[in-house]
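Page 42, continued from yesterday. The earlier attempt failed because a stray header line got pasted into the input along with the sequence. Redoing it now with the clean sequence only.
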Amino acid sequence: MKNAGTVLMYNCSGEEFSKLKQIFAMLRLRMRVVGPERYQVPLEELAQGKGEPGETVQPLPETMLVFCGMGQALLNQVLEVIRVAKLPPIPLKAVLTETNREWNTMQLYEELLREREAVAAQNEESGAD
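This time it went through. Structure tokens are written below.
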């Protein structure tokens, strides 16, 4: 049975995420839990299960998921199942792309924070009209 893609999981431990892991297993997604000692490894290598651990850094303060190697239809299905399952919010989600595949975890995290701030600022502007 072929796996459908890989999900890099950050800070997804604990009881509240057991349902998330069941969903990923049901959809035949490979799950790779990424600890702080692997944050310096490029995302593409993490998705392939490669990359040597390095110096442990401060863990991310939030939960983050990175979807790797899955088509748009499957990604939409995964996101819909997560939404319907009423899981705890996972504010940071990304897809592995040609642009970010060489990035490490911290580079992706910082980019996602910039995007979130830009969206929040845009929403404030549109709300001020």
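Notes: Residues 6 and 47 are 6 Å apart (CA to CA).
Reminder to self: strip header lines before submitting.
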